[in-house]
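A quick word before the example. In earlier lectures we treated sequence and structure as two separate objects. From today on, think of them as two lines of the same record. Here is Methionine--tRNA ligase written that way.
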Amino acid sequence: MEKKFKRTLITTALPYANGPVHIGHLAGVYVPADIYARYLRLCGKDVVLVGGSDEHGVPITIKARREGVTPQDIVDRYHKIIKDSFEELGISFDVYSRTTSDTHSATASEFFRRLYDKGEFIENTSMQLYDEEAGQFLADRYVVGKCPHCGNERAYGDQCEACGTSLNATDLIEPKSAITGSVPVMRETKHWYLPLDKWEPALREWILEGHKEWKTNVYGQCKSWLDMGLQPRAVSRDLDWGIPVPVEGAEGKVLYVWFDAPIGYISNTKELLPDTWATYWKDPETRIINFIGKDNIVFHCIVFPAMLMAYGDGFQLPDNVPANEFLNLEGDKISTSRNWAVWLHEYLVDFPGKQDVLRYVLTANAPETKDNDFTWRDFQARNNSELVAILGNFVNRAVVLTHKYFNGEVPAAGEYQPIDNDAFAELKSIKSSLSDNLDNFHFREALKDAMNIARLGNKYLQETEPWKVAKSDMARTATILNVAAQMCANIAVAFEPFMPFMSKKLRGMLGMNEINWDELGRNDLIPAGRHLGEAELLFDKIEDAAIEAQIKRLEDNKRQNMIDAWTVAPQAEDVDFDTFMKADLRVGTVLECKKVPKADKLLQFLIDDGMSKRTIVSGIAKYYEPEDLVGKQVCFIANLPPRKLRGIVSQGMILSAENPDGRLVVMGPTAPVVPGAQVK
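And the structure line, produced from the sequence above:
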């Protein structure tokens, strides 16, 4: 039997305040959380949506050090960017706070102290890397060295970004401090650990037996961790940025960010509801839902619940954790360090007024069961062929026809014909599927249901043809356009969780004020006689130029990443002068150039070498159009033995230099020389 709850507390993973929010964050966490919160509000439920910025941890201190500012400067900057962009996208947080707030600091300190006083921690000493020059222990990200797996010279102490292998700082070959460049030493340090193994039986019972309805990816990852056996986990670390460990003898130590951050859900709720916050955390009739990405499953399903169990005092555990997989970008993993991302604050500038387009596309491509991909071409296609051509088209036709035949007043419906009854029967069926999908966090399918109302409306108008019926039967025309108006009103209700800006605009056109989910599926949402506003386009086409600009930006970022990561290749072994002099380097003029059939990389040159004409085949077709090379002078090796390539005898090798992005540039003289001139 399904349990009934009086209220719902929705939390969203705290975005890390060392950079802006990108579409991967939105698709994985914030858009689905907002859809669900808006849906519950439409259903008349007591719901609170809680969010905030995660503002502690090593990456923030690293960024601050690089920029020569304080960590507080960094988090102040990005907290504002994140909060403002969320608000502009319509993410309807009831509170969006931060982990540097006084409320959070007090809450997190009290949380640690209670567990400490109850004896829930294990105190342990270990050897860690220490920078004697800087006078501090080094967090994993402050240690760089050679990766023991792939040999990357700039691997971090927690992960090698070249091969993706997770590391410990002590795994690195020839480790160095990222702060001073000095070689660190091992030194003893004391920390406190939460014994997750103590809570393993309770967690196993709660998750594996009590929540078999959870998404497969969530349940499976939890089971894997539990089956491997849980281990104690440090809750403090040596750092000067964070919430100080509130016990004597802990100078220079702060709460580990993974322990600190989830307490932010509690402190943010306190900030919103200082007198009644406990009702949303400790009352068994409150349902708690955590929206997160898959990289946070363990923290929200195992670590944070263990913390709450250890604290006691009635704290409730989440009823569901509908974690999503990852969203990729143009076939590649989103990466903040490589600037391979679509940043929300930039999108809002580049596509003003198109918040709902992004919400729609991210929901349509939501990585609910597996990683999915965002491409700019798909973004454009969904806007133009779905939002403009289906949804916008139906609403526009319905409103325009009502103005044309009834001066903008919704006509009264006469007796329904079978086609009218069938349309409303299908609408009720759509509502049932839509509600079921929303209740079960299947937002991608729910969006399809909502769009099916617009498809139904278009189909209805095409089959009833009111523009033809109006020539002979205005009473029937009135019924048809009344039905169409009711379909528009149902669209306004159904899409409000997904596209609130469009819904508000449409409700303004239809003269609708308050709406609720129970009204969805009805045939009398708009009374006869109501005057409709003038038809306005709900969406407009996105042209190729706007999309090409975004694709170019990504390509430019990728090229810059290659340049930034490029290192000079080691010098080849010495070659004696006599051997080098055997190579006959000359300049020739390109007389003809063409692509080699069925060979994407090859160009065939006919070159004037001063004595005759020779053919050379070169693998540079990806980087040049053949006609652009005709008349150019190039350097080539003249005395290589002839070699057959794709059936063509190549008499030499054209010299090229390779850029960091792999692009080949043909070498030639900076001023004209006679064909056949030797390179000295």
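Notice the following. Residues 1 and 149 are 52 Å apart (CA to CA). We will return to this example when we discuss secondary structure assignment.
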